[in-house]
Inverse folding.
């Protein structure tokens, strides 16, 4: 019901002429806003950790204590450095059950739309760098332009701004 209480994370892949690259997303369940992302040619834990760092930085004015950070059982999300960073942010780590993609459905949906709207539609891709630049544009579109039915047919950024404006007016009253 509020931002910064439940985030979902997942990784997807894309084929390039230079080999595969991988994109990690962190999504706030309140608005479906992508709050952190990273593209890399490696599936190492740093990929997910960089996306997590971006998410923490993008929410720097918010109290993240108690935030539930949910992911699948990917090795990136079970890495000690990753779980320690979640704990440092005072968030709580949640990992899905084995072989169950339904408990991370929002992240899977974002991945599917990312691949359908960007990766598959605009490829072939030359390199991870090219995917990264296109991903930056797509994330901006997702957060600031695209109309989301779950947000009352407004973009996630506008949905969150409206929430904070309502909260401020309630606190002022």
């Amino acid at each position: 019901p509020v931002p910064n209480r439940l985030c979902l994370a997942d990784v997807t892949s894309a084929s390039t002429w230079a080999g595969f690259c991988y994109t990690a997303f962190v999504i706030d369940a309140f608005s479906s806003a992508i709050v952190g992302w990273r593209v890399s040619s490696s599936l190492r834990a740093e990929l997910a950790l960089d996306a997590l760092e971006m998410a923490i930085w993008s929410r720097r004015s918010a109290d993240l204590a108690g935030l539930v950070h949910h992911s699948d059982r990917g090795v990136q999300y079970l890495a000690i450095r990753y779980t320690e960073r979640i704990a440092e942010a005072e968030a709580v780590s949640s990992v899905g059950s084995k072989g169950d993609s339904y408990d991370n459905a929002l992240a899977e949906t974002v991945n599917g739309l990312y691949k359908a709207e960007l990766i598959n539609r605009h490829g072939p891709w030359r390199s991870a760098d090219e995917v990264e630049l296109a991903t930056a544009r797509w994330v901006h579109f997702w957060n600031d332009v695209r109309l989301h039915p779950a947000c009352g047919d407004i973009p996630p950024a506008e949905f969150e701004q409206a929430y904070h404006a309502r909260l401020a007016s309630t606190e002022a009253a």
